[in-house]
Write a structure and sequence with these properties.
488 residues; alpha/beta; GMP Synthetase, Chain A, domain 3; 2 domains; six-stranded mixed beta sheet; 13 helices; 24 strands
């Protein structure tokens, strides 16, 4: 395989040269070859360059996975710019904050359903898919500089506010070369995989780029639905997919599961949120021909840095683990107070050192975990207050900031309330200045926040659990919310 060098838009070069008619993307009834992808990438690069976008610029992109978003990522990279991938569920005010945080250029790209929201969020021109084509576009040279940013993703920080994670050409190219993707073989039929996680998540964007590099065919489900997922696997003879545990549970629970032909499926990778042991065991029993692997990582490490292999899954005591470090990855479990390694089996903060880290040096992940004598990692929660609802991660401060603007709210605190299906659901405790209802709280949030951030558990209390330093004690807050719900 020819190594990727200096610019990630080279990821498809080998396939385009050797087998241009090979299917690259399948979205609904539309199919696109690798030649189609290359034309879209070239056109997008030319349109952006003609609009003044160049090396070092960042382009806000709001769209589901598909040809346009793929072309936006690779087309921006080709001219030395970086696509900043944003969540399609965000409201204009939230998109505006991300664009400001990432210092995006005045030129942005959106799928048609999301164009109006992005136009309200940015002071500039928002291009739709139809604007990224043309017969008179000028060829643009590829900018070869591995120090330039190639992609910008977003994650929640310890304060709960989203932060931009820029990824350089060199770092991303190196990550693609080390991903566990079979090398491209023009003589073999393409492996067919499913992408049903959002492209703006590291698992979606990196998974798609890795599949394109390997000459695979990716069937994209823009929005997950368990029944449709089953239908697509059977129709396209899909062999592998990455799932958030909530997705896996809904697939197993779907009434069509028992009658759907899933014989083509060979591997299921799961991660992004904690997977209950009972769920994994149930999935293994229901799909005995499928190899399951738990992958554990985060945006700052460009995806997985540990994995629980399929063979590990046959040791019952290992299923609650996220596995061991991948080759080239070093892991420490550290006492956050002293920054000294803890004893084997003790809980501490997980630190990671690897070449795939977005920034050099040890990454303090914010994850609490313990490591056994064989190097297997067992997560124990988060140091930060980040809420993880089915793989969607965000800070409680976002919900609190919105609700504090309501005239009837005197004080409010939010937290992730443990939930067997979603991992966590959003809970809020409200100190009301005047009478209000649960429905009023939820409606107010629905108009101002992405739907997954809207509180599902709302309780009204007289006081919130503050520490002496004036910070909400989240553990006590969760207990308070659970207690109030139990009393209803």
């Amino acid at each position: 395989m020819v190594p990727i060098a200096l610019n990630i838009s080279h990821a498809i070069d080998e396939v385009v040269a050797a087998d241009p008619s090979r299917r690259a993307l399948v979205i609904g009834d539309d199919e696109y070859s690798y030649a189609d992808v290359e034309v879209a990438v070239s056109n997008t690069a030319a349109v952006l360059a003609a609009r003044g976008v160049g090396p070092g610029d960042r382009v806000a992109v709001v769209d589901v996975g598909g040809l346009a978003s793929t072309a936006a990522i690779l087309g921006a990279a080709r001219i030395g710019a970086a696509a900043a991938l944003m969540n399609i569920q965000l409201k204009p005010s939230e998109l505006h904050e991300l664009a400001r945080t990432a210092e995006c250029s005045p030129i942005a790209i959106a799928g048609e359903p999301y164009r109006a929201a992005l136009e309200q969020a940015v002071d500039g021109v928002v291009l739709g898919p139809a604007d990224l084509v043309g017969d008179d576009l000028q060829h643009t040279d590829t900018v070869e500089n591995d120090d330039l940013d190639a992609l910008v993703l977003f994650t929640s920080g310890t304060t709960g506010l989203p932060k931009a994670i820029p990824i350089t050409q060199g770092t991303l190219s190196q990550r693609l070369l080390t991903m566990m993707t079979a090398p491209f073989d023009p003589a073999s039929p393409p492996i067919i995989g499913m992408m049903c996680v959002p492209i703006f998540h590291v698992g979606g964007s990196l998974g798609l780029l890795g599949a394109l590099q390997g000459g695979r065919t990716t069937v994209i489900q823009p929005r997950f639905d368990a029944g449709e997922w089953l239908r697509l696997v059977a129709k396209h003879r899909i062999t592998s997919a990455f799932l958030v545990p909530t997705m896996l549970q809904r697939i197993l629970d779907h009434p069509d599961f028992a009658t759907t032909d899933l014989s083509s499926l060979r591997g299921v990778y799961y991660g992004a949120a904690a997977a209950p042991v009972e769920l994994v065991q149930r999935a293994m029993a229901a799909l005995p021909h499928v190899a399951f692997a738990n992958i554990f990582g985060q945006t700052e490490t460009l995806g997985a840095y540990t994995t629980l292999t399929p063979d590990d899954h046959f040791a019952p005591e290992r299923i609650g683990s996220v596995g061991r470090a991948l080759p080239g990855v070093e892991i420490r479990i550290v006492d956050p107070a002293t920054e000294q390694e803890v004893a084997v089996g003790d809980v501490g903060e997980l630190w990671v050192l690897s070449e795939q880290n977005v920034r050099p040096g040890w990454l303090h992940t914010g994850d609490l975990a313990r490591m056994d004598a064989d190097g297997y990692i067992y997560p124990s929660g988060r140091l930060s207050d980040t809420i993880n609802r089915g793989g969607e991660k965000f800070g409680p401060i976002e919900i609190e900031t919105v609700l504090r603007e309501h005239p009837a709210v005197a004080d409010v605190a939010a937290a992730g309330v443990p939930d067997p299906e979603m991992g966590e659901r959003v809970g809020v405790a409200v100190v009301a200045a005047s009478p209000m209802t649960v429905g009023e709280v939820q409606t107010y949030c629905k108009d101002r926040l992405a739907i997954y951030k809207v509180p599902e558990h709302v309780v009204f209390v007289d006081d919130l659990p503050y520490s002496e330093t004036g910070k909400v004690v989240r553990r006590q807050l969760v207990e308070l919310i659970q207690s109030e719900l139990a009393d209803k």
